[in-house]
Amino acid sequence: QHAPRVAHGAPPSTLQWRDACQELRWGLLATPPSIAPKFLYDAHGCALYEAITTLPEYHLPRVERAILDRHQGAMLQLLPRGAELIDIGSGDGAKARRWLDAGIVRRYIGLDIAEDWLREVLRRGRQRYPGVQFDGVVTDLTWGLQLPLPREAERPRIFWYPGSSIGNFEPAAATALLAQMRAHMRPGDALVLAVDGPVEHARMVHAYDDAAGVTAAFNLNVLNVVNRTLGASFDATAFRHRAVFNAEASRIEMHLVSQHAQAIALGTGQVLRLQASEHIVTEHSYKHAPARAEQLLRGAGFDQLQRFGIDGEAYGVYLARI
Length: 322
Ligand code: AVJ
What we know:
Blueprint: E1 6-8, H1 20-28, H2 43-52, H3 60-78, E2 83-88, H4 97-101, E3 105-112, H5 115-128, E4 133-138, E5 157-161, H6 171-182, E6 190-195, H7 201-207, H8 214-230, E7 239-246, E8 251-258, E9 262-265, E10 271-274, E11 279-286, H9 290-299, E12 304-308, E13 316-321
Parallel strand pairs: 1-4, 2-3, 2-5, 3-4, 5-6
Antiparallel strand pairs: 6-13, 7-8, 8-11, 9-10, 12-13
Helix pairs in contact: 2-8
The structure holds N,N,N-trimethyl-histidine.
């Protein structure tokens, strides 16, 4: 197999942010002020997120593993062999190993915003699975799916989007992203998508506001990212982490609540003024009940859907085909 190729997904030319600074400034000066969740994931943020995934309160990864362990055999019956596996948000690469170990993958294509992590995943993968071609695309999914691949693949395709990260997209944007995956698929191909659903209120809130304060540190760290990116002057000690469940929208919202009236220089001449208890939104994490998850997938053009779950849990792993 040849050495991994790493492409860069470019943003579409129209109506897009010129750069991260412009996007951050635009969000911070909006009402309510917001910071897109992708900015949570600098090196320190990635390490904190890894720590979140091992917290007792953050049940999502455990439930997802239980579902996949229970149903992997049934899913393998439905997945193509000799496939191209497109790992959406490859992260540390660990979640794709289940499919690589099952021997159904001939080519792996990792998509991630973090180039260093992606290169490391490709390097290790190539060592561990010598029969598989490893390639990657450095890309920001909030720009849409930048997939420099022919729509007509030589091999069957599996899109793998675990972790319920689709929940960070507003529902219309989630459907649009899934439709872009659909456009790269043919009959026989599959999308395997994990979607978290609503559970008991306290359980949801604690999952995003843990006793050890790891999620609080993760959320507050985004202010360091903004300071570095813009040359802004946020004081993280002047904010408090808050997680609320917005029942009407069925989403967890992470906020940074201003502890007193303050004026923050954004490093561009612009100033953000916040009153005490005003907040900045840093994340929406949608909790889609099965009917809503299926609606997202059908809206994106998938009409063969299978849901895999476990009793008593709202988390679903969906296998969608066209
Ligand atoms: C990575 C988007 C799936 O929404 O549960 C975890 C991120 N935020 N704790 C989620 C997150 C706070 C996570 N996703």
